[in-house]
Input
Amino acid sequence: MSKITEPTYDYQIGKLTAAYKAAITSILAELNRMDVTEMSRANSSAALAEVATILSGLNAESAAWVAENIPLAARDGVVNALTSLKIENPGAAPQFNRMNSEMVKAAVADTQSDLLAVTQNVERRVRSAVRQVTGESMRANTAAGIIGRRTISRDILDGLRKKLGDSVNTGIIDAAGRRWRPEVYVEMVTRTKMAITHREATVNEAIDRDVLYGRISRHGAKDACANWEGKYVKLVPDATGPFPYIGDLPRREIFHPNCKHLVSPMRNPPADV
Ligand SMILES: [Zn+2]
Output
């Protein structure tokens, strides 16, 4: 049996997370340039406009990344199916069948909207922090005059700075309530979407060739996936045989976020497993 390697897409994903890190660094620099001793609505509007520009550049970059890389994962998934089934692939780039064309379109849209949600989240948090800090700075200045000080106290200034920094540093909260740094979340989302796309492309190619079974790859996993390595699965629920349907496998154990396991199609799984 030919060795199927599990793609990691480390290089591509590294480029995307670097873009997020760079954008976050630029936003922090923009926030640090704000003079918290004397904030005005005009200054904060200018800073927020700059933040919006940085994020819209990031949105364009990540949309292009998704449009290029999701199809790449799908092509790798098709090649995985062809290699597993020992089918010669004459062209350099395999064609997508109808199921795969539809799947890739949906996966691109889905991933782009997940990434857009990340930048929208960052923008919302920064906007709210800047508004809050502007208000506090204005109030503190007025109060300093009443109290008879020339400037706002160091403690207040530090607090205002921290509030601005925290708006990008403390990260975003996912549906399960976990907190992520934006670039770590982006890495998890894209890695997971690439893996799902790869698997679905493999399954779609296999089914189109009347292949209804597959086997889960092995790499000596240490987590719950270990129980599933080398196991046979059905690619459609109503295929005959004593194997679980791939869509019913417990997601806590296999094909979880960041999981690298893939499925290799096979026409005839052994009868005695
Ligand atoms: Zn796994």
Observations:
- The first helix runs from residue 10 to 33.
